[in-house]
Amino acid sequence: MSITHNHDLTGQRALVTGATSGIGRAIALQLAAEGAEVVVHGRDAARGAETVEVITAAGGKAEFAAADLGNADDTRRLAEEVGDVDILVNNAGISVWGSTGEFDAGAYDAMFASNVRAPFLLVGALAPAMAARGKGSILNVSSMAGDIGMAGGAAYGATKAALEALTRSWAAEFSPSGVRVNAIAPGPVYTPTPSGRDFITSLGETTQMNRASEPEEIADVAAFLVSPRASYVTGATIAADGGRTAI
Ligand SMILES: NC(=O)c1ccc[n+]([C@@H]2O[C@H](COP(=O)([O-])OP(=O)(O)OC[C@H]3O[C@@H](n4cnc5c(N)ncnc54)[C@H](OP(=O)(O)O)[C@@H]3O)[C@@H](O)[C@H]2O)c1
Fold first, then answer.
1. Which pLDDT value is given to residue 3?
2. Fewest C-beta atoms under 10 Å: which of 69, 107, 130, 198?
3. Which ligand 1 atom lies nearest to the CA of residue 26?
């Protein structure tokens, strides 16, 4: 095999959910820089337009698609409107932290709807067509919270553990047809997450690298995983967490 370079996503169409902010935005920018045509998904049209503008100003191709992934019908509509994609990044998600006894049932349901049900519906709508074409790549954005116990993170961690279980089952279901399905499990990342910057900093201090990460450090790994450079990787959850879950 020859050495591959950047821009190996030319000609591929990618849907990145939650690309109006944080990790998803960084992934959308990275995929576009590597040549993909990116559907930037989110709810906030102004931030969606800004992400699209940054991509197109750099010479890339992007469009914005809005949908509330907490709503099943809207999620199915998004898949129908977007149509065929070569790459699906299930990044959109929310993290609500709190003690189990006081946890709001509505917040629990909303978190499972956006973090687990939406990826399930999007894969159900988009992966069969990838399989029929014999190729495609799906990346689910999990979290170290899905792999280790964290006080206050029971419900959030459960959504991410579920997403990792889905990743393995989808690899079993779709990889025989040429569709790779993987997950990335970031450690703490500085994003506009409602958990706040101090929370991210304190989590960063628990990692082996004694720091939190920037979204671009996650996006680089994500871009590798969806690209042909990761052609023999499927069913895997790759930690990008400063060693937090390894030791
Ligand atoms: N930040 C971290 O430390 C960290 C660590 C590990 C894993 N993660 C995971 O990484 C992913 C991205 O997190 P982030 O920190 O980058 O978050 P963020 O900056 O808060 O951005 C979240 C994105 O998801 C979208 N989104 C959330 N709920 C949605 C819904 N119901 N319908 C449609 N879009 C929705 C938002 O869209 P709009 O704002 O346009 O509505 C936004 O684009 C999440 O799955 C999160 O669990 C984050």
1. 46
2. 198
3. 16
Helical residues (DSSP H) of the chain, grouped into ranges? 22-33, 45-57, 72-82, 105-112, 118-133, 154-174, 197-204, 215-226
Tell me the average pLDDT across 26-46: 98
Q: What is d(CA 191, CA 181) in angstroms, rounded to the nearest whole number?
A: 25
Task: Judge contact between 204 and 190, C-beta under 8 A.
Answer: no
**Are 180 and 137 within 8 A, CB to CB?**
yes
Residue 4 — very low, low, confident or very high, per pLDDT cuts 50/70/90?
very low
User: Ligand 1, residues 25, 43, 68, 199: which to mutate, most atoms within 8 A of Cβ?
Assistant: 43
Residue nearest to atom 14 of ligand 1 (CA): 22
pLDDT digits (tens, 9 = 90+) for 199-229: 999 999 999 999 999 999 999 999 999 999 9
The β-bridge partners of 16 are: 40, 89
Domain boundaries, the chain: 13-240
Q: How many CB atoms lie within 10 A of CB 127?
A: 20
Question: CATH for 13-240?
Answer: 3.40.50.720
- C-alpha–C-alpha distance, residues 83 and 90, integer Å: 15
